[in-house]
Design goal:
It contains 14 helices and seven strands. A seven-stranded parallel β-sheet has the order 1-3-2-4-5-6-7, with helices on both faces. The chain has helices at residues 32-35, 58-73, 92-108, 123-136, 147-183, 188-201, 216-229, 246-258, 272-277, 288-296, 312-315, 350-361, 367-375, 381-389, and strands at residues 39-41, 80-85, 111-117, 207-213, 236-240, 265-270, 328-333. The chain is 45% helix and 10% strand. Helix 3 (92-108) links the parallel strand 2 (80-85) and strand 3. It is globular and about 55 Å long. The protein has one domain (27-94, 106-389).
C-alpha cells in the first residue's frame, strides 16, 4: 500500500496508481527523508538494490526496519505493518510517486507502509509488442462493419502474435523477478521478512498485512509462504485484480488461508462483462488479464488459456464454501466495496481503498478517521496520465 500498483491505455500505470494523497504533487516535492523509511527496491533478479537514490545496503535496510519503524510506531495502539507490491507494468518513478501520495493518510490511520519497488516495468515494451502484432495481423475486410465481432477477431489474432513476438518471455522474466525477491537469500523481500519475523516474535510489531495489485499478487504469494514458514501469522492479504494463476493460488495462498496462517483474505476482481469492456493500449480489446490468460502464460489461448485468480470466470472455480466465512471475502467490481471499472482502477478508487483500509484496521479506529484518510487524499488521475505521456504510448488529451 505504500506503493499502493480507464481502459488500460497506459496513460495511467497499469496495476498502479495513487492510493491516497494530500494533493496531486510529484514525489520530488516531498522531503527525501520522509520517503526513505518506506521504500525497498529490488534489482532485476530480486536482489536488494543498493544503487540509485533509494538504494539500500543490508545495513541500511536493517536500520530502517528494526530502528526507524519501531520508533515511529511506538505510541500506536496497534503496531501494523503493510507490505505492498505494485503490479507488473510499473515504472520506478510511478511507484515512488505512489509512496509519496499514500504516506500521510496511511500513517494517520496507524498503518506503517513498506513498499517493494521491484524491477517490473515492461510498459513500453508491451505496448510495442502489441503495436507490432497489430501491424502483422491480417485485414478483417468486410468484418469491419461488425464491430464487436471484428474486435474479438482482432484479439484472436493479436494473442498468438503477442506471445510469439516476445510477450511470454517478458512475462516470464517479470514473474521470475517477483519470485526471486523472496526465494533468493539476498532477495529484497527475503531480507525484509527476516527483520519482520524477529520484530514480531519480540512483540515489537503486532500485525503484518500484505497487499498486491495485479502481478504484485505473484510477488506476495512467495513472501506470504515464507513468513508462514517462519511461524509468523499474516493478519490479512488483499489482492486487487491479481494476475497470478489459479495454480499459484491453489499451491501457495489457499493452504495458508485454510490453515489460518493468513487470517483474512480479500479478493477484488472486475465482473466478467466489465473485464471484457476494458482494453490494453487501445489495441487489444479486453483487459490486461485476458491478454495474460490467452497469450502470456504457460498455456496459450488456442488451448483454452491459463486460468487466473483475477478473472471472475476463473475465480468461480473456487468452491462456494471457501467464501462462507468473513475470513475470506470476494469483492466484485463495480459494487458496494469497489467502483473500479478497469484493471488499473483498484488502487486509485476511493471505495476500494476505504474498504481495504477498514479491513486492515478491523474498524478499531473511528470510521471518520479512515474515511478522511481516503476521501480527502485521492490523487487526480491527471497526475498519473502525466507520468505516462512521456512514454509516447497515448496522445495527450
Amino acid at each position: 500500500m505504500a506503493a499502493l500498483g480507464a481502459p488500460i491505455q497506459f496513460a495511467q500505470p497499469v496495476a498502479s496508481a495513487a492510493m491516497l494523497s494530500v494533493a496531486p504533487r510529484s514525489y520530488e516535492s516531498r522531503i527525501y527523508s520522509e520517503l526513505r523509511p518506506h521504500i525497498i527496491t529490488a534489482t532485476n533478479d530480486g536482489i536488494l538494490d543498493d544503487k540509485g537514490a533509494y538504494g539500500l545496503t543490508e545495513a541500511g535496510l536493517q536500520e530502517i526496519v528494526t530502528q526507524r519503524m519501531p520508533r515511529r510506531m511506538a505510541a500506536w495502539t496497534r503496531k501494523r505493518v503493510v507490505l505492498y507490491a505494485h503490479g507488473g507494468l510499473v515504472a520506478e518513478d510511478a511507484a515512488i510517486q505512489t509512496v509519496a501520495s499514500n504516506l500521510d493518510a496511511l500513517m494517520m490511520a496507524e498503518v506503517y507502509p513498506l513498499s517493494f519497488i521491484w524491477r517490473s516495468d515492461a510498459l513500453s515494451t508491451l505496448g510495442n509488442i502489441l503495436r507490432d502484432a497489430f501491424a502483422r495481423r491480417r485485414s478483417e475486410g468486410i468484418l469491419d462493419a461488425a464491430k464487436d465481432f471484428m474486435l474479438d477477431r482482432i484479439d484472436d489474432t493479436l494473442e498468438p502474435l503477442a506471445r510469439f513476438l516476445g510477450g511470454k518471455a517478458l512475462w516470464d522474466e517479470m514473474k521470475e523477478n517477483a519470485t526471486r525477491a523472496t526465494t533468493r537469500a539476498k532477495g529484497a523481500a527475503r531480507l525484509t521478512a527476516g527483520h519482520l519475523v524477529a520484530l514480531e516474535k519480540a512483540g515489537t510489531i503486532d500485525e503484518i498485512h500484505l497487499v498486491g495489485h495485479s502481478a504484485g499478487a505473484i510477488f506476495q504469494a512467495h513472501l506470504a509462504s515464507h513468513l508462514a514458514g517462519q511461524g509468523v501469522p499474516i493478519k490479512s492479504v488483499t489482492l486487487w485484480a491479481p494476475a497470478c494463476t489459479m495454480a499459484l493460488f491453489d499451491a501457495l495462498y489457499r493452504p495458508l488461508i485454510e490453515g489460518k496462517q493468513i487470517e483474512a483474505f480479500d479478493l477484488y476482481t472486475l465482473d466478467d462483462a466489465t473485464e471484457q469492456d476494458d482494453d490494453c493500449a487501445n489495441i487489444y480489446h479486453k483487459s490486461l488479464l485476458y491478454l495474460v490468460r490467452a497469450a502470456l502464460e504457460e498455456t496459450a489461448g488456442i488451448f483454452g488459456g491459463t486460468p487466473l485468480l483475477g478473472l471472475e470466470r476463473d475465480a468461480r472455480s473456487i468452491p462456494a464454501a471457501f467464501w462462507r466465512t468473513k475470513r475470506a471475502i470476494w469483492h466484485l467490481a463495480p459494487g458496494p466495496d469497489s467502483k473500479a471499472l478497469h484493471h488499473g482502477d483498484f488502487d486509485n478508487d476511493p471505495t476500494t481503498l476505504l474498504s481495504t483500509l477498514r479491513r486492515i484496521t478491523a474498524q478499531d479506529q473511528p470510521v471518520a478517521v479512515v474515511q478522511a484518510a481516503v476521501s480527502d487524499r485521492t490523487r487526480s488521475r491527471g497526475a498519473n496520465r502525466q507520468l505516462r505521456r512521456r512514454l509516447d504510448l497515448v496522445p495527450a488529451r
